[in-house]
Amino acid sequence: MPALLEDPARCRHAQPSRHLRALRRGPGVNDDDLRGAILARVAGLRAGTSLCPSQVARDLAEDWRPLMTPLRRVALEMAGQGRIAVTQKGRPAGPDPRGPIRLGRV
Question: Where do the record's region annotations for Disordered lie (predicted)?
Fold first, then answer.
C-alpha cells in the first residue's frame, strides 16, 4: 500500500479525501461490477427514459460519490461500443462531457 494511504498525516490536507478513504478500505467495486450494474439499470428503463449515473452508484455503495468518476468513464466506454446511450441536455454526449450526463437504452 502506498505510504500516503498508510499515513494520513503525510497527506497535504488535514483530512484525506473521500477517494483516499475509499482506497484505504480495500479493493471495492471494479469496472466489471460497474458495467453489470449499468446494464442492469439501463435494461430496466422504459423506452425514452434515462437515469442519472448516481442512481447506479447508490445501488453499489453507501459511500457512492467516489464511484462517480470511474462510473462515468465506464459508461462513456460502453456508449462508444454502442451498448448504452449517454446524453447531455437531451443530445448524445461527446467523448469527454463536462457536467451532468444521463444514461439510457440505445
Answer: 1-29, 83-106
